[in-house]
Amino acid sequence: KRWRIVTSTNDLRFTESGVVDTITLQAGGNVGIGTTAPASKMEVAGTFNATSSSTQMLLNSNGDVTINLKG
Q1: Could you give the CA distance from residue 24 to residue 59 in angstroms, rounded to a whole number?
Q2: What is the pLDDT of residue 54?
Q3: What is the pLDDT along the chain (71 residues), one digit of tens a residue?
Q4: Could you tell me which of 60, 13, 18 has the C-alpha nearest to residue 37?
Q5: Strands 42-44 and 31-33, how do they pair?
Q6: Which of 26, 44, 55, 59 has the fewest Cβ atoms nearer than 10 Å?
Q7: Are strands 3-8 and 31-33 parallel, antiparallel or unpaired?
Q8: For the chain, where are the E strands, in sequence order?
Q9: Which residue, among 38, 41, 37, 69, has the nearest Cα to 55 in the 3D structure?
Q10: Is the pTM of this model over 0.85?
């Protein structure tokens, strides 16, 4: 796979070949994954998974949230 770094107006975008913009860094500090127009400091379009040593949180694109407590 090939990655490109492009600028659009004041934004910086990382794009994988054959895929729409993958990561967007806006001049104002917002970061988007899977979106070119993040409306908050971090916006993820799609499924989001966060894991620590004791907890896992999964947020699906349909709005379902799953929290697994480990240990």
Answers
A1: 20
A2: 82
A3: 688 888 877 889 888 877 766 899 999 999 999 888 899 998 888 888 788 888 887 777 777 888 888 76
A4: 13
A5: parallel
A6: 55
A7: unpaired
A8: 3-8, 11-16, 23-25, 31-33, 42-44, 48-51, 55-59, 65-69
A9: 69
A10: no
